[in-house]
Amino acid sequence: MTTILAISNRKGGSGKSTTSVNLAAECGARGRRTLLVDLDTQGHAGLGFGVVPERDAPTAHHVFTSPDFDLQTAIRPTACAGVSVIPADQLFDGTTALDRSVSALQRCLRSPDIAARFDLVILDTPPSLDMILVNALAASDGVLVPMIPHALSAEGVRQLARLFFRIATTVNSGLKVVGLLPVMLNVHTNHHRETMQDIAREFGIERVLTGIRTDIRLAEAFAARKPVRDYAPLSRGSADYGLLADELTAFWQADAAPAADTSS
């Protein structure tokens, strides 16, 4: 069964696109057939793989503007083994949406054709509270929340948690929090440590992942339109995103394991 993972935070600039691109590359390298869907109209996730939509070409946002849209027509190959991308429509503002239901994206992503082609779908979501973010959470199995360890990003986590609860109690009871991911992390900065301690107390230490350290190579890789594992494979950023892929693999394996029989 295809796993759908939303990368979300209500705070902009929290590392969603960087995480989406580099996690997709790591999962593809591990043999998971991975589709990255760019739902943020900034289009950064597509750019991270050098994928720019041609004029009038199908995009992820055609799900909401074209009845009976075939999502497969928007899939673009990348230079990374095992990874494909659906780019965003950078001009989409919601006014042309014909399907505003919470299940529009789910219907496309849960199609037999997508299930046959991909093991993992990663959704790079917008920070704004709109129908795109609601659709992404309604379609997903889990949410990964990147956050810069400072107060505003932490508030974005709290706002997302309220939306998560609403979606999980109404339209998607199977939605899980996969983890909170500190990015641009510097453990020698007091404010970073204090913020993560507050988040751990509020949401549970078990939800906090190891994190992504500050590394200029991550920004350079985006400028080169490559994942960091290809641009700088020996960098801290590459090592940290590799560890994240391992942590998420362990999470998915544990989640898929049958519960132990305690009846005897």
Keywords:
alpha/beta; AAA_dom; DNA_Partitioning_ATPase; Chromosome partitioning protein; Rossmann fold; globular; seven-stranded mixed sheet; 264 residues; P-loop_NTPase
Count the DSSP helices: 11
The helix content is 40-55%
* Strand adjacency order, main sheet: 3-4-2-5-1-6-7
Q: Structural class of the secondary structure composition?
A: alpha/beta
Find the CATH superfamily: P-loop containing nucleotide triphosphate hydrolases
Q: How many individual domains?
A: 1
Please give the number of β-strands: 7
Main pleated sheet: 7 strands, mixed
| CATH topology grouping | Rossmann fold
CA-based gyration radius: 18 Å
CATH architecture descriptor: 3-Layer(aba) Sandwich
Which ranges are low-confidence, i.e. pLDDT below 50, for 5 or more consecutive residues? none
The CATH top-level class label: Alpha Beta
Average per-residue pLDDT, rounded, comes to 91
Domain AAA: 3-176
Pfam families: AAA_31
InterPro entries: AAA_dom (IPR025669), DNA_Partitioning_ATPase (IPR050678), P-loop_NTPase (IPR027417)
Organism: Methylobacterium pseudosasicola
3D architecture notes:
The chain has helices spanning 16-29, 44-47, 62-65, 104-109, 112-117, 131-139, 151-168, 190-203, 216-223, 228-231, 236-256, and strands at 3-7, 34-38, 76-77, 83-86, 120-124, 142-147, 176-182. It has one domain (3-251): Rossmann fold. Strands 3-4-2-5-1-6-7 form a seven-stranded mixed beta sheet, sandwiched between helices. It has 264 residues and is of the alpha/beta class. The protein contains eleven helices and seven strands. It is globular. α1 crosses α11. β6 (142-147), α7 and β7 form a beta-alpha-beta unit. This is Chromosome partitioning protein. Pfam families: AAA_31 (PF13614). Residues 3-176 form the AAA domain.
